[in-house]
Amino acid sequence: MPALVLLGAQWGDEGKGKATDLLGGSVDYVVRYQGGNNAGHTVVVGDQKYALHLLPSGILSPGCTPVIGNGVVVDPSVLFSELNGLNERGVDTSKLLISGNAHIITPYNVTVDKVTERFLGKRKIGTTGRGIGPTYADKINRVGIRVQDLYDESILTQKVEAALDVKNQMLTKLYNRRAIAVDQVVEELLGYAEKLAPYVADTVLVLNRALDDDKVVLFEGGQGTLLDIDHGTYPFVTSSNPTAGGACTGAGVGPTKISRVIGILKAYTTRVGSGPFPTELFDEDGEALRRIGGERGVTTGRDRRCGWFDAVIARYATRVNGLTDFFLTKLDVLTGWEQIPVCVAYEIDGKRVEELPYSQSDFHHAKPVYETLPGWSEDITKAKSFSDLPKNAQNYVKALEEMSGAPISAIGVGPGRDETIEINSFL
Ligand code: GDP
Ligand code: IMO
Ligand code: MG
């Protein structure tokens, strides 16, 4: 019953898509358990590059069944444009399964995301504007629309009415926008019902049966640990639980079934949107990381904020996720620096702090304490085993492993599937 969780250990964009795709050939199911099309997962297969947002990265592996779990929020228009895009490129998407309990991102959720961000002004979260937060808010407020609601027009109409009652008051009276018509929304949503039907399934039953039959299931997180609604840098977070526990609630699989939790960890740090980021660089090193690492968002096209590796965050990710392994990505991007600073602790009000402070005020003015490690200049993109790496690159990896609290079981040395050094097998 091997069930693996693969998740972001930092603020997202660690290379989860590549790591999932790499394992996709050896697993039976790849399951998204939270988030939606706020994710942007780039997968490079040979000379082909794919940008996935809502679909699990396992969709590119022919033997694998991709699953959108109950914890995901689904924008049907995005779903179909992503499926069409893949079909046009010859990818078979017919095995996809979507939970009937997944919530739908409605057009009004997208509108509310955009107007609330505008209203927040300089206090904005910097969301992706995809309606993620408002859809999860409706879910928690019990006025959400689920995939299964599309198959009962009367229930759907009642639910859209309930959701729009308050929202239209807010849109017209507070935000000075036009009210949204119930009929129009219902009609648009019903228009997806038939096309969606072949994919809708009781995914909880499917996945638990698969685990009972000893199939291999991989849960693919979106976003990352520090963007988690409970464990991240609230309020500058996404509205779901990318952390390991989210895989259980977001897919309906008990914690006793999870055998391995892999944290995807970039060899430096990036973040998109607002919020604290202790090791952020505003100098030419930051610019160079952005340029060499291609650090531009796949979803919104925004430049990613860049900084040195932060071991305090990595230790925190190990703790809150119960990580068994790390997959270290983008080591190749650091080639060429003579010295590489790594943040080993913070200084807060003159005191050295080893662990992530639980107080947001402390975290906001945490200053990184750096140790500097010697760099390397040799091209490492062709390295196939750990011993192929230059000594200083090996030492950098070993130092990160020691600071971060879990073994580094794979290393990414380029974006392609084969540009990976496997140290311990994940399966
Ligand atoms: P995700 O959201 O975690 O899936 O990550 P993104 O796809 O948003 O960003 C990671 C980027 O780094 C993508 O463009 C990947 O193709 C690329 N990438 C992944 N692993 C490596 C690596 O080891 N080296 C290099 N140079 N690029 C990588
Ligand atoms: P992947 O899966 C990086 C960030 C947004 C914003 C905050 C809230 O590619 O790693 P939201 O639209 O989710 O309400 O925005 O979260 N964010 C991401 N940052 N990678 C992502 O996904 C992200 N998904 C959301 O930039 O700061
Ligand atoms: Mg991404």
UniProtKB/TrEMBL annotation:
Organism expressing this protein natively: Streptomyces gilvifuscus
Residue numbers binding GTP: 12-18, 40-42, 304, 330-332, 412-414
Intracellular or extracellular location(s): Cytoplasm
Protein name: Adenylosuccinate synthetase
Record's function text: Plays an important role in the de novo pathway of purine nucleotide biosynthesis. Catalyzes the first committed step in the biosynthesis of AMP from IMP.
Cofactor(s) it depends on: Mg(2+)
Record: active site: D13 (proton acceptor), H41 (proton donor), K139
SUPFAM superfamilies per the UniProt record, alphabetical: P-loop containing nucleoside triphosphate hydrolases
Top-rank taxon, per record: Bacteria
